[in-house]
TrEMBL record:
It holds the Pfam family MarR_2. Keywords: DNA-binding, Transcription, Transcription regulation. Residues 52-187 form the HTH marR-type domain. The keyword Cytoplasm does not apply. It comes from Deinococcus arenicola. This is MarR family transcriptional regulator. InterPro entries: HTH_MarR-typ (IPR000835), MarR/SlyA-like (IPR039422), Tscrpt_reg_HTH_AsnC-type_CS (IPR019885), Tscrpt_reg_MarR-type_CS (IPR023187), WH-like_DNA-bd_sf (IPR036388), WH_DNA-bd_sf (IPR036390).
């Protein structure tokens, strides 16, 4: 199994960045950029350890590239990633009567005002409907319309296939390692955020 390359040991071929053959880039643009940034920092601040910045940039570009790849599944329908996440949540987690805005926020980690805006956009597209709760008339429930359910069911196989295609470059062992590292990092950052919020309140 190939070993991950540390950010401070990235290397690219000696060809100039951006060189193309038949319209295709011959170098990994991100690897070339990281090496250039590393060299620039070493030139002007040789005592500085720039590896955290390089890793952060790598993660940022990875997230953006993965999102762009997956968004091709539903962008033609005028749906963005946040809308798609909401539709998937309603498909997999909502009972027949739907979910409240609070429940949707908890399942998607989206705040109240943002959730209202996203639900409204999907309402306008006819993909979801908002119903008054039978048990609490102050509470509204959101659920997929038949049109919304049909759209998600139609696009879901393509969505999964695009994600599988993006990850196919990794072996099962590499994918397991990546998942474990990603979870460890996310949990660390989430705990840091909780601690910072507590300090700000205090």
């Amino acid at each position: 199994m190939s070993q991950p390359v540390a950010a401070d040991r990235l290397a690219v071929p000696a060809s100039p960045a951006g060189e193309t053959v038949s319209g295709k880039t011959t170098l990994g643009q991100t690897a070339a950029l990281l090496n250039r940034i590393k060299q620039d920092w070493q030139r002007i601040r040789p005592e500085l350890d720039a590896s955290p910045m390089l890793t952060g940039l790598l993660l940022d570009r990875l997230g953006s590239a993965f999102a762009r790849h997956v968004e091709q599944t539903y962008s033609a329908e005028g749906i963005n990633s946040s809308n798609w996440d909401l539709l998937l949540t309603l498909l997999r987690s909502a009972p027949a009567q739907g979910l409240t805005h609070t429940e949707l926020s908890e399942l998607t980690a989206i705040s109240g005002p943002s959730m209202t805006n996203r639900v409204t956009r999907l309402l306008n597209k006819g993909l979801v409907e908002r119903m008054v709760s039978a048990t609490d008339r102050r509470s509204a429930l959101v659920r997929l319309t038949p049109q919304g359910r049909q759209l998600v069911e139609r696009l879901l196989p393509h969505h999964i296939a695009r994600e599988q295609g993006a990850l196919s470059v990794l072996s099962p062992e590499e994918l397991s390692l990546l998942t474990g590292i990603a979870l460890k990092l996310v949990e660390h950052l989430e705990l840091d955020a909780v601690d910072e919020d507590a300090e700000n309140v205090g």
